[in-house]
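Notebook entry, structure prediction.
Reason for the run: the old model in the group folder had no record of what sequence produced it. Starting over properly, with the input documented here first.
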Amino acid sequence: MDYLQKIVEIIEKCKKEKPCEIDIRYNEPMAAYTTFKTGGPADCLLRPSGGNFPAFAVELLAAARIEKIPVFILGGGANILVSDAGISGIVLDTGGWTGISESPTQNPLSPVFRAGTTLDAAAEAAADAGLSGLEFFAGMPGTVGGAVWMNARCYRKETSDVLAETEVIDFSVTPPEHNRLPVDKDKFAYKQSPFQGCAVLIVSAMFKLTPKDPGSIRAEMDSCRRDREEKGHYRFPSAGSVFKNNTAFGNPTGKIIDELGLRGFQTGGAQVAPWHGNIIINKGEATAADIRKLIEEVASRVKAATSFVLEPEILFIGRW
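New structure, fully documented this time:
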């Protein structure tokens, strides 16, 4: 059977078994779905929406696994670089699964956000409820599911600090299992979570927040947004910080790169931001290959000058 025809049949079968509103696109360019604004076509991109999203996702992941069709789970596209050659198989876009779900604990201090909810929207919803804890999400690109998976952090706070429970579908087993996992801080680390390297779909996340004056919550959120803007996070398409910081190096990665005079260094349409060494920008015509080549060149020059081995935060996705 033709590979693409197999994907079509899987989707039709899953729609019949677990009806769901779905936006289905074949040979869909990924540039519109990443903050780098680059990336070749996905064989198939699915965006299910509505209350039957989890049931449809279980069916899809089980069927794809049986047929050996790869599935890439897409959040906000904020920390990935998709190959110019695109992505094989199915891209499951969580962007249609947003908002607040009912909390299993019925605790008003523990809201549950669906995985596709943007971090900024989650921060806004918490502020509307007079709940503090998600202020550092304000202005941060990405989704709740992606933040949990990456243990996203900023301003000396990380996602696991406020995470209470994660709802997941484990599709490493047959049939896939639907679980709620209380947070175990020992399994989280700097930009690491226990979900990395595992065949799981994060469905939702419950947070543990505290009541606070809404005015002070919003003042802190506004401060985060201003700081991101002043640091140039929104001037050009980018993925924010390219490399992880390593305390053993003594200085933040951006400072190390700056001291080597690499601000403004360019490969094709990709450039080290003139204002920050740890941000690589798409000046408008960058290919994914340009960006990856620049990442590797910066890492090579840092290693040659300092012996430090920089570890990318960015995930390289697709047909490299």
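Summary: The chain has a mean pLDDT of 95.
The old model has been moved to the deprecated folder.
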